[in-house]
Amino acid sequence: MRSPTAAVLGEIGLPIPIRDLAARTWDAIIVGAGHNGLACAAYLARAGKRVLVIESRQRVGGACTIEEPFPGVRMSPCAYLAGLLHPLVVEELDLTRRGFQWTPAVNGMFVPFLDGSSIQLWDDDERCSEAVRKLAPADVDGWNAMCAVIRRLRDALRPAGKNDFKRDFWIGDSPTREEIDSRLGNDAEAKSVLFDWSMAEMVEHYLRDERLQIAMLGQGVIGTNASPFDPGTASIRFHHSSGRLGGMPGMWGYVKGGMGMVSFYFCDAAREAGATVVSGIPVAQIIPGEGVLLESGERISAPVVISNAENGPCGGEEGDGPAQVELIIIRPDGTEDDATVLTDDETGNWSVGYINTDLVGVYTVEGDCSDQDVPEVRVNATGFSYTDATFTITADEPTSTTAAPTTTAAPAPAVAATAAFTG
Ligand SMILES: Cc1cc2nc3c(=O)[nH]c(=O)nc-3n(C[C@H](O)[C@H](O)[C@H](O)COP(=O)(O)OP(=O)(O)OC[C@H]3O[C@@H](n4cnc5c(N)ncnc54)[C@H](O)[C@@H]3O)c2cc1C
After folding, report:
1. pTM listed for this prediction
2. Terminal CA-to-CA distance of the chain, rounded, Å?
3. What local confidence, expressed as pLDDT, does residue 19 receive?
4. Which of 16, 52, 264, 372 is most buried, by CB atoms within 10 Å?
5. Whose CA is nearest to atom 14 of ligand 1?
6. Ligand 1 near 205 CB (within 6 A)
7. What average pLDDT score do residues 15-41 get?
8. Helix spans in 95-230 (H)
9. Is 314 touching ligand 1 by the criterion CB < 6 Å?
């Protein structure tokens, strides 16, 4: 079966004018067409929901996509190996019929050392054990023990096949700590890997040869900002061995056509089930309970908005990325005005994402803003300043964000405003 999404290399564009999208009734809007947003869209659409996916880039797939940097040369720009894709998702979203094929990367990892020696760490415990025997014979037992603890963890938390008595923890609700503890029983080693050890502690527990230890350290910091000496990094090593793609425990592999084909197949599945996917349309803001505001100024309504976006105006957790202040301004007549997003770019400059020029006045801010350091904000055409519990919007002459502070506001009756702080 030919993938319609792959046929345009993920560049879906805007199949329907924005005003028509805005006029429709949606059950859910998904911000971002990364593979997670697309899989989510496919499942919701299959459940009969009216789903709109809005992607800011021209191409869908996010970090799991395919690019063509030179004519005729296609490549996976970020994610390049599949391993944690759940077989149930392959089955339910009909990936094989759509064309999904993969080749196990059995060669694993080749690691050269400064002393001229090297090791091929095959994705096959027996072959790997043999390679370890040649490099560091004294470490064979430790190596085997390290592989064994990973196997025990995988079997405990992600038992193979459909199991009515011991569910795969990746399916259904997240397990509680108690549930995990009970699965692991008194396997202290497995608990240390999962909850406590740094990757450095893990390799030192099992291996003596420093070359082997170093070869493995990187496996504990994949996709994280941690160092291998940070507690918990051993669990990352386990996580990357916890897949069961194709029924092969811990195996990773190359997807035919490039890793982004997975996202493209998800996009096909979503659209086939009735979801609408648009690309090249950035979302400026999520308005809880109402929908989204596009960067181009239009609003699209939906009672539920699901963010697949990375940190930025639409997502993020405390400590991640720029701080944000959202202001929802309530006019004297009780109606709400468009929300305003202030973003701290972490250099002390604050900028206003969206503001209405008819909002000249002094406003009070409800909520605790004392821990927010917003000395003053200036924007073109509209001044904005902030002190403790009030903020001021002035219709100053256009100024730049680096100009002198805004001083006073045109007097106006105080009206209520609510402030929500995120990030
Ligand atoms: C260099 C690199 C290599 C990797 N290698 C692998 C690998 O080999 N195997 C593997 O399994 N994983 C790998 N990963 C991790 C994997 O790619 C990511 O975990 C995964 O792609 C994340 O998917 P996602 O859908 O959650 O988010 P993303 O792929 O980040 O998708 C988010 C989408 O939201 C869009 N978006 C953001 N803001 C807005 C907005 N305001 N409005 C509209 N849309 C917006 C973005 O453009 C993007 O398309 C790698 C990651 C990187 C960076």
Report:
1. 0.77
2. 44
3. 95
4. 264
5. 79
6. no
7. 97
8. 95-98, 125-135, 140-157, 177-184, 188-191, 199-206, 210-217
9. yes
